Amino acid sequence: MTSTTTSEPWQTVDFSTDSPKILVAEDEKVLAINIRYRLQNLRYTVPDITDSSEEAITKVAETHPHLVLIDICLSEKINGVQVADIIQNNSDLLVSYLTEYSPDRTLDKQQLTEQFSYILKPIAERDLHIAVEMALYKHEIENKLEEKHQQLTAVINSMGCAVVVTDINGCVKIMNTVAEQLTGWKQNEAIGKDLTEVFSLIDQEINEPIENLAKQAIKANKILSLPENCILITKDGRQIPVGDSVAPIRDDNGKTTGAVLVCQDITKRKHKEAQLLRNAFYDGLTALPNRILFTDRLRQAIERSKRHNDYYFAVLFLDLDGFKAINDRFGHQMGDNLLVAIAQRLESCLRSVDTVARFGGDEFAILLEEIKDVSDATNIAKRIHESFALPLYFDGHNIICTVSIGIALSGSKHNEPESLLRDADIAMYRAKRQGKARYGIFDEAMNP
């Protein structure tokens, strides 16, 4: 048999002995002696007998028995059931009641419902033997199950992610400490509750609650991944992005007995992904879209113009006039500050549907969507020039930086973003050669 460790003063109960120790607490002296004799005849050790509730509690601490046989109606201030509660609250000792049969006894109906938890008087030796052996065997099995449960708990608590085990109905059975910390629920609060109550999940993409994932995995009979945009609503209402999987649990016979949800807080991963996305599509200095994102939006505009005959757009290509001289005179830090301020001014000149991007260095591009004709584009160019006429103040210096602008209008000959950008670039250089701080509109005569 196994060993079970309990807290002081009850010490360790060793089931490895060939002769389990049994303490008898019975207020009928003759019956107590008779029970002791029968137990010893059955090769059990009876370290003591007592007729006192208080003494029974003391002798448990002194003798460390495997089993306590206690009269349910000890004639003391506290009855046998109360004594048993005290003993079991302080240890995992096994207690069986000695009682007389009475169909009208309420206490019997409430307390003696578990098989082999009681022995009826008068006691036959065979019945006593069976009851004791079954009680000891049942206790041994319970200890083994508890040992396995503790081993499982130790394993899942050592994991760095949240683990929730459910039964076949999708109700919580076990939660590890990480799951407690993540959800805000304690295991003793969560046990028996539907998974969706403790692990409340929302699909952020459609803003709808996610149904019980344990039930879904059990029904599908396979491992399921959490939705990509899965948000956990904690007990105190916080929202945490989570990810991982849920899988059905099967016993040795392949029968599904429940499910296990494994997940983790992916807030840092989401932030990293967002940062990588920004690095891929946005300029690190000005936070404007970069050439890649601008080209993608321009390609979408071209496709829209193919589907809708009344959809027009324009591309403006901008190059700062004399920016190198400013950089050389005031330094690169001043140059970077100037580029940031220029980016903000360009944004202030546009509508929300338009896109301004930095292509690198002192080059910018603008996509004007849903325009009526060329005048919409030229009006934006004029507005930009007026804005740039106002000086920028940096470290005691008033700096005026002008810009040359080339304009290319959408048309049937433009099937690729590069052709529009090329035409706008040609128009910009024509404007720069004509005196800078100007804008020019591309026409076919500009082609070399």
From TrEMBL:
Domain GGDEF per the UniProt entry, residue ranges: 311-444
Domain annotation PAC: ranges: 226-278
An example molecular function term from Gene Ontology annotations: diguanylate cyclase activity
The keyword Transferase is assigned to this record: yes
InterPro entries linked to this entry: Biofilm_reg_signaling (IPR052155), CheY-like_superfamily (IPR011006), GGDEF_dom (IPR000160), Nucleotide_cyclase (IPR029787), PAC (IPR001610), PAS (IPR000014), PAS-assoc_C (IPR000700), PAS-like_dom_sf (IPR035965)
EC number(s) recorded for this UniProt protein: 2.7.7.65
Keyword check for Transferase: yes
Enzyme kind, highest EC tier: transferase
PAS domain residues: 148-221
Keywords for this protein: Nucleotidyltransferase, Phosphoprotein, Transferase
Ranges for domain Response regulatory: 21-136
Modification type 4-aspartylphosphate: residues: 71
NCBIfam families membership: GGDEF, sensory_box
Record's protein name: Diguanylate cyclase
Organism ancestry: Bacteria, Bacillati, Cyanobacteriota, Cyanophyceae, Oscillatoriophycideae
